[in-house]
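Q: Focus on the chain.
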Amino acid sequence: MTGEIRYEVDSGIARITINRPERLNAFTIDGATRMLECFRSAADDREVGVVVLTGAGERAFCTGGDVGDFEAFTVEVDRAMNAQLLRLAHEMRNGGKPVIARVNGYCIGAGNELNMLCDLTVAAEHARFGHSGPRVGSVPNWWVTQMLPRSVGEKRAREIVYLCEQYSAAEAAEMGWVNRVVPAAELDAAVEEWCRSLLAKSPTALRLAKMAINQGSDQLTGAVSQGMELITFFHDTDESREGMRAFVEKRPPAFRPTDPAAEGA
């Protein structure tokens, strides 16, 4: 199947692929909607025991939402996108089946938000992880500001979100951000190994285990909803638009009057 999102089921494994390698697998609102449909299909399919989420090509898992598409967002469009993302997160967390992130390159911004929503992460050695929110006038409030501290600790989470630096797969694994790192040539075999292991387990036990482990972080759902609504209002400000515009134009943002870029902004 072609298109922005590919969906395939084979031998009990549902594979969802973000298929925009030319855009480093940044997704649009249509892509978010299609991912939601795919996760629902996997949840409803009795033959599916595990879901793998990945990106096409070797350069990127996902680099987030397509800023080129979002730069001219209105509040209404932004709220529509966030509503779909909340539905997508709900399906990923409550579909009852383990979800593995197969990370094959850049995992940045909303790409890492997708990664955090997966149960397990297997990354290639060349994968890079990070966030760009404050750099581009945004905040990763879609389950990252809520979940990342639970994986890497609060101090590390603040470093990752505030400083907007990138981290190697090995560094991410050391922090507890990902589960396993393998050479790129072994990525598919490693993911397949874990899929086969999960398929050999009781599906009902896995469903109950996922529900039980999620129970603690489920209490954060209100914070996620509130955070997404707040970010909608922020995206409609001049400050946020300047960040997104500067990113698209490949220049430093002028967030403050004293910024060197302010004169030419």
Q: What stands out?
A: The longest helix spans residues 75-94. The beta strands are 5-10, 13-18, 50-55, 60-62, 99-103, 106-108, 120-124, 128-130, 166-168, 180-182.
